[in-house]
Amino acid sequence: MRILAIESSCDETAAAVVEDGRKIISNIVATQIEEHKLYGGVVPEIASRRHCESIVSVVDEALKAADTALKDIDAIAVTYAPGLIGALLVGVNFAKGLALSAGKPLIPVHHIKGHIAANYIAHPDLKPPYLCLVASGGHSHIMKVKSYTDYETIGRTLDDAAGEAFDKAARAMGFSYPGGVHIDKAAKEGDPKKYRLPRPKTANPYDFSFSGLKTNVINLVHNASQKGEEIDINSLAASFQYTVADILSSRFVAAAVEGGYRVCAMAGGVAANSALRDMTEKRCKAKGIKLYIPPVSLCGDNAAMIGSQAFYEYTEAGITADGSLNAVATMPL
Fold first, then answer.
1. Rounded CA gap, 262 and 315, in Å?
2. Longest C-alpha distance within the chain, in Å?
3. How many of the other CB atoms lie within 10 Å of CB of 324?
4. H or E element, residue 99
5. Cβ contacts of residue 148 below 8 Å, gap of 6+?
6. Which of 74, 65, 53, 50 is nearest to 1 (CA)?
7. How confident is the model over 234-293, as pLDDT tens digits?
């Protein structure tokens, strides 16, 4: 089964053709990073306009790269929640029109489910049940993946997501958007123990809270600037990255051990972070847990992951949508 998938939840306009949920035939992404760098983060109105400008050519390129005509596609999938509402609307309305005109089933996909499904593309042997850490710009969750379509949240951020904290802390350190990649690079030249940063506690041991940590870094930089003191940016980056990665990794692995999981996975943009990957791999190995992580190329937003999840939504649960499908900015699993 070949699915044409569309993703436009934030600042990437993406389209892909995926076969049987596991094989990428084509995967096209048009990024807006250079434009949003000017503002230090994603500007929703600009993102929506660029999606409008790019979506036709991106979908066309995905079909051409797959050497597939629209008539040979079996279904059309689209991210409908959660995300920037204007950005989501572009993808949803385009997909609805395309499905209607081509007479194809329309499959709505939740963005977080898509991130998790990136692992199915990278690891053909991975099957539920397993425990998954989803860490991205907008989400930080520990999820029980009970089946391809059934999930349970056992931990989540109470305020800022890990990726958001990375971006805002990076801006205070003088790095451009997106901040995570710059912090990762700078951290390799710094001392992760030079700055002692707070580790927020939560009532649920598997929840996260990054707002206070982010604010502490911002205040540290601002106070040093006001006093004319020098900040070791590389070491601050290393200390911040180590703290975030350690919080995510330790709570995730603790949840896996308590739940008796022998198989775990990671997903989302922050899963590309080298410290988090290395730390979690070592902890899982020490506990005898098999860990699956997508390649960095599939950690960020892309349409291939949406096409993968769509296959299971359709074949396992028979989920389709009609012309009443709407975009939703906030939606828990």
1. 27
2. 66
3. 6
4. helix 85-102
5. 128, 309, 312, 313, 316
6. 74
7. 999 999 999 999 999 999 999 999 999 999 999 999 999 999 999 999 999 999 999 999
